[in-house]
């Protein structure tokens, strides 16, 4: 785990601003033995989870095992990109040595276009175990058409760009369906190695605009905010732009987002050396632990 400081289908998620963890109400006995509901205000959250709606359930469940109180506040949502409709035609009309898929969302969008193209034979390189899992069911049902054949030694785009195998043929063609907001690191790295890369911006992300004031107030009070992408990180900073002196912790899913957080000036940033749910949970727990230690330390 790295720390920098200057000090498969998920189950549906609850509505935005919903707490998951310890109960917030109880039943008490009133006059004449009547039962009355006594709804107490929910306890303050330990962590804000910020992935797109419907994609926070596994993280919330993993944190509940450690008695961590979560507040779900989706910060981004995915929408079609400018090249979404082009993907099926490109797959039908051209042949590629590799398809590069770098996130679960990119995988889901690609599979939709691939099926619309008639499920042509493709060889896929993925970044991260979570991305690979999106292809599990398809590759098991039709392994002759879709083969997940490579993942880099480290779940990062720059590692894929430097490690992707190329055949003996003079031209190695790569299709890279990506977020419109993704950097050019992968295609530039592959191009430098002699690959011919076609990039399609098949989806993009937009910040969630409708956040209730009470939900935002609770989120700002949380000691830790968990983010899974630079886009979510930027959406959070935009959301709290009018808040003075917010200096709580950011727990990132991996090094790419962690590096972005440090570049944006955040001073308490946690992230695992290997991206993924397990390391992310450990980073969140570490951030909560340090917060509690600082809170309980005797004041001088």
TrEMBL record:
Start-end of Low complexity biased regions: 1-10
Pathway stated in the Swiss-Prot or TrEMBL entry: Porphyrin-containing compound metabolism; protoporphyrin-IX biosynthesis; coproporphyrinogen-III from 5-aminolevulinate: step 3/4
Catalytic activity field: hydroxymethylbilane = uroporphyrinogen III + H2O
Domain Tetrapyrrole biosynthesis uroporphyrinogen III synthase, residue spans: 58-282
Annotated keywords: Lyase, Porphyrin biosynthesis
The enzyme's E.C. designation: 4.2.1.75
MF term (GO), any: uroporphyrinogen-III synthase activity
Matches recorded under InterPro entries: 4pyrrol_syn_uPrphyn_synt_sf, 4pyrrol_synth_uPrphyn_synth, UROS/Hem4
Protein name: Uroporphyrinogen-III synthase
Species lineage: Eukaryota, Viridiplantae, Streptophyta, Embryophyta, Tracheophyta
